[in-house]
Specification:
Rossmann fold; six-stranded mixed sheet; elongated; binds adenosine-5'-diphosphate; binds magnesium ion
Amino acid sequence: MKNLLHLNKYLFQYKTLLFVGTIFILISNVFALYPAEFVRHSFDNIQESISNNNSENSIHFTLLKYGGLIILFAILKGVFMYFMRQTVIVMSRKIEFDLKNEVYKKYQELSLSFYKKNNTGDLMNRITEDVNRVRMYLGPAMMYAINMFFLFLLVISKMFSINTHLTLYVLIPLPILAVAVYFVSNQINKKSEQSQAQLSTLTSITQETFSAINIIKIFRNEENSFTRFYEECKNYKYKQLKLVSVEAWFFPLIILLIGVSTITTIYVGGLESFEGEISTGNIAEFIIYVNMLTWPVASVGWVTSLVQRAEASMKRVNEFLASETEVKNLNTNNTPISGNIQFKNVSFTYPDTGIRALKEVNFKIKENETLGIFGKTGSGKSTIANLINRMYDRDSGEIYIANTDIKELNLFQLRRNIGYVPQDGFLFSGTVSENISFGNDVVNEEDIVQAARTAEITEEIESFPEKYNTIIGERGVQLSGGQRQRISIARAIVIDPIIYIFDDCLSAVDANKEKLILENLRSKTKNNTNIIISHRTSSIQYADYILVLENGKIIEEGKHNNLIQKGGFYAEMHQKQTTENT
Ligand SMILES: Nc1ncnc2c1ncn2[C@@H]1O[C@H](COP(=O)(O)OP(=O)(O)O)[C@@H](O)[C@H]1O
Ligand SMILES: [Mg+2]
């Protein structure tokens, strides 16, 4: 149970709801208790009337009176049950909301290496499935547990006050019922988890088909893909049927044990009544008590398995909540950022793969300068960008920005001043404007248009049906790779950062547009530091300084002309690329 302790802070936060809910549960149970007594009175009255030869009229009145009372109490019980759900279940929904937000916030805090270690499905499950199970503990499980407690207390003490002997007999089947239901509901949970897992496999297969439908059609892969679906679907059916066969045990089991208790009541009660220990009305009363107890006893098993599941889920959630962010913000003060960047003997190994991506890298750029980083795929170019925007922290060496150790800068201020354009140009589903401003409310329309102009994407945006309000992405206009890249460039430009990092983001833009964008940037960003990462010499030939990387090492550096004169790797690649283009 120790994992569920994390939730105590929330229970404390919503203590009023929980407290009031508990009171409602108690009241509804009190109202549930009396009808059994009214039934006893009715029976006893009938008996009395028969032996006293009373008129039919008087019994008529008595029966109507008790009937009315039973209805009245049932209504009152119902009203308080309504209030009980309105408090306890509402509390669980509120905690679910808070917990989801807590987990999501934590997700956003955690560094990239965390995401490399955990797969997406797993992360999604924790915020949906696992949180939901925790909610089942806070809502239904807790409500039934409190309900059970009061009901047992009230009903059993009532039964004992009437006849100890009969009570003991009647209670015998109940523990058996509780244990049996526990086993059955455990099986149900296990089976339903298996079928749930199969369902998610099925979903991801279907999803994959949808997103790759064109490839499937072109390669005439329909048959194959159908077979795959068919097999998984069959598997799902099989798991569902197993679940159904276990579930089928549930109600018969309960009804059997209710039956046993009822028969015991009548048999033992009949004997007691014959001996004059209790009245016949008491037998009827006991039958009602037994029926009142069965469902809660059955739910002991159910609640236990709910709590166990919640405990397991909360353990998984807690694991995440307890994970430490590797990249920490050590400074919340204002720390001025400038375009002065220096790497001193910086080495870096990706923690998950053990790949040594940078080896003793040294360079320096001043404000207003442009640095070009050149190298083949996998040479470590993006890793330099990752270290500058602190997606990771370097292993050894030093990185200075504005002559301050990068770790001593306010992390959020640092990132706020970096305009990063990633390689893949990811866009969110939303309008063009939203994608450029990215929810940044200081950005106005004028800025957006200006940024689009710098990124040379205005012409295309103007041709879209709704211009800047056109929805792009999955449910809207589909953009080409180059258009996506240019919108991502506009997104970086709009925040007016001090440092620009263009990570190979011009690869899908044609040579003409590339040249224009670079010119725009040079005139717009002449007060900024630009880092242009590329595997094409054309993108970086105007840089003030160029680093040539291979296997994480700087193998050549200098200005474009010097590198060409040197006749090394860079010159060779330049030669190749320019002849290819002509
Ligand atoms: N997130 C990551 N986790 C583990 N290894 C990575 C990661 N990103 C890159 N690498 C590895 O580090 C090396 C350098 O990669 P990267 O800096 O992305 O190269 P480039 O940008 O020049 O193509 C490659 O061998 C790559 O496989
Ligand atoms: Mg890269």
